[in-house]
Each structure stands twice: as structure tokens, then as C-alpha cells.
């Protein structure tokens, strides 16, 4: 863990953040650990926004810096396994447009050989179910960042049950507010709120 990177990200210091990331890449630090530090930094951005210290424009700024970090990291993210082609449907649930974390998970799953169908953001339950049906996916990944959108994830699971597809697919819910309680409430099979855990979950059932 690199405290100065977390701090630079939390302070929205673009220049410093990018300089530290470049330095860490050169020193051979793993891309995953760099991303995790940046995630911790934006978590602090979120806390500062909650307590009125930061504004919406600052959330937007954090997105922009994160995007630039990802551009630096992408060429260094190592392709770990040969393609297995296992299909996964993934998207951010209805009402929610956060996608930095989801995109990261999608990117890493693809680089681990999965065939990911990314439905984007604000995805209605019926669209998830249609995609599961059409692609024969073995996994469904639901990203939720807003607590008031947790219900949207539950609706997807309920609809899967209604149309008889629930037993055929493993549902994984992920995102900042997601914990065991959210997993139980939505009826998902598993959950993750960090990248290492996220990839492990998909790999363990191969
Ligand atoms: C950047 C940001 C934004 C950006 C989003 C840009 C984008 N393209 O995504 C913008 C500015 C658009 C935004 C808007 C809003 N935001 Co906002 N945002 C954030 C912030 C600061 C960072 C989120 C982020 O990208 N984190 C970095 C990524 C890498 O982490 P992550 O998303 O957690 O993903 C990781 C894991 O969770 C996991 N994961 C994620 N998805 C999935 C899916 C699966 C299947 C798996 C297995 C794992 C997994 O893997 C990822 C990698 O580690 C958070 C603060 C926070 N603590 O999260 C607030 C936060 C989520 N936002 C918040 C709010 C309130 C809003 C707004 C309502 C603000 C407003 N008044 O308009 C709007 C909502 C818009 C909407 N309808 O969705 C609140 C939510 C509070 C709550 N209790 O619900 C937060 C928590 C800030 C806060 N503390 O108040 N936001």
C-alpha cells in the first residue's frame, strides 16, 4: 500500500497522482495494487463529498483522474491465463450510472480469458435477463454503487427466478456498498467490493 498515492488521489492532485503511478509502474509494482490504492483514494473523495467538503464537480474530477491512471496502467496489466471463453454478462443496475469499477472488472475478466458481454450502465432488469438468455452466460455480474439502487439488483434476481433461469446462472453482485447483507437481500450467490476478490470469485467456479 502506498499512502502517498492514496493521499494524492484523495486530494485530487492530478499531477502528483500520475507522477506516483508512473514511478510505481517503473519500480515494478503490480497494476492491481496501484488500482486498489487509487480506489482507496476515491473512497476518501466520496467521504469528503458526503460531509460537504467536496462537491459534485470533485466527484467528476476523481473520475477523470482515475481514467488517466487506467490509461497509464492498461499496457501493464498482465494477460494471466489463456482464453477460456466462459461467457459472463455484466452491467450496472437500473438507476445507477457509476461504471469505473465495473469497467475495471470487465477489463480484468477479459484479460483473464473470459468472454464478457458488457451491457453498460442503468440497465433495466429485463435487459439483463434477455442477455443471459441469449448468450447462455454462466455468470451474471451486477454492479451497484448507490445504496438506493440495491433494490434494482434484487429485481434482476427475482426476474431470473420468474422466467426459470435462476438455477442456470451464478449471480455476483459488486460495488462500494455491497456486503454480505446486500448479497442476502438481493438473493445473489456471491459478492465482492474489491478487485482481487472479484476475479477470484469468477475463477473459482471454472
Ligand atoms: C466517481 C464517482 C461518481 C462519478 C461516476 C463516474 C463514473 N463514470 O462511474 C459521478 C460524478 C458521475 C457520480 C455521480 C453520482 N454519485 Co458518485 N461517486 C463516485 C465515487 C467518488 C467513486 C466511485 C468509483 O469509481 N470508485 C472506484 C472504483 C474502482 O471502485 P468501485 O466502484 O467500488 O469498484 C470496485 C469494487 O467495488 C468492485 N466492483 C464494482 N462493481 C462490481 C461488479 C461486480 C460484479 C463485482 C464482482 C465487483 C465489482 O470492483 C471494483 C474494483 O476494485 C464514489 C465514492 C465511493 N466510495 O465509491 C461516489 C458515490 C458512489 N456517489 C454517490 C452519489 C450520492 C452520487 C450522485 C447521486 C451525486 C448527485 N447528487 O448527483 C450521482 C449519482 C448518479 C447516478 N444516477 O448513478 C455516493 C453514493 C451514496 C449512497 N449511499 O448511495 C458515493 C458513495 C459518494 C458518497 N460517499 O456520498 N459519482
Structure description:
It contains nine helices and five strands. The protein has two domains: 3-76, Methionine synthase domain (Methyltransferase, Methionine Synthase (B12-binding Domains), Chain A, domain 1); 87-204, Rossmann fold (3-Layer(aba) Sandwich), CATH 3.40.50.280. α3 (31-50) runs antiparallel to α4 (56-73). The protein is α/β, with parallel strands linked by helices and 206 residues long. It has a five-stranded parallel β-sheet with strand order 2-1-3-4-5, sandwiched between helices. Helix content is 54%, strand content 11%. Residues 39, 42-43, 45-47, 49-50, 56, 59-60, 62-63, 96-102, 104-105, 141-143, 145-148, 172, 174-177, 192-195, 198 line the site of cobalamin (B12).
Summarize, please.
This protein has 206 residues and is α/β, with parallel strands linked by helices.
List keywords for this structure.
206 residues, alpha/beta, Methyltransferase, Methionine Synthase (B12-binding Domains), Chain A, domain 1, Rossmann fold, 2 domains, five-stranded parallel β-sheet, 9 helices, globular, binds cobalamin
Coarse structural class: alpha/beta
- In CATH's first tier, which class of the largest domain applies? Alpha Beta
Strand content: 5-15%
Give the second-level CATH assignment, the architecture of the largest domain: 3-Layer(aba) Sandwich
Largest sheet: number of strands, sense, barrel closure: 5 strands, parallel
Main-sheet strand order equals 2-1-3-4-5
Number of helices: 9
CATH topology of the largest domain: Rossmann fold
Helix content: 40-55%
Amino acid at each position: 500500500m502506498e499512502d502517498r498515492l492514496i493521499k494524492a488521489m484523495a486530494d485530487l492532485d492530478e499531477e502528483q497522482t500520475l507522477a506516483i503511478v508512473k514511478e510505481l509502474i517503473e519500480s515494478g509494482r503490480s497494476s492491481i495494487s496501484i488500482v486498489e490504492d487509487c480506489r482507496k483514494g476515491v473512497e476518501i473523495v466520496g467521504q469528503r463529498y458526503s460531509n460537504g467538503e467536496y462537491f459534485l464537480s470533485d466527484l467528476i474530477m476523481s473520475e477523470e483522474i482515475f481514467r488517466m491512471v487506467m490509461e497509464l496502467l492498461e499496457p501493464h496489466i498482465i494477460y494471466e491465463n489463456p482464453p477460456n471463453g466462459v461467457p459472463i454478462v455484466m452491467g450496472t443496475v437500473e438507476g445507477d450510472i457509476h461504471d469505473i469499477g465495473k469497467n475495471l472488472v470487465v477489463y480484468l475478466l477479459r484479460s483473464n480469458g473470459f468472454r464478457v458481454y458488457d451491457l453498460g450502465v442503468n440497465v433495466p432488469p429485463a435487459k439483463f435477463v434477455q442477455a443471459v438468455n441469449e448468450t447462455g452466460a454462466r455468470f451474471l455480474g451486477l454492479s451497484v454503487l448507490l445504496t438506493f439502487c440495491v433494490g434494482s439488483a434484487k429485481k434482476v434476481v427475482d426476474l431470473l427466478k420468474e422466467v426459470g433461469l435462476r438455477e442456470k446462472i451464478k449471480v455476483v453482485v459488486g460495488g462500494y456498498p455491497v456486503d454480505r447483507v446486500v448479497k442476502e437481500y438481493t438473493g445473489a450467490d456471491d459478492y465482492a467490493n474489491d478487485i482481487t476478490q472479484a476475479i477470484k470469485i469468477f475463477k473459482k467456479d471454472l
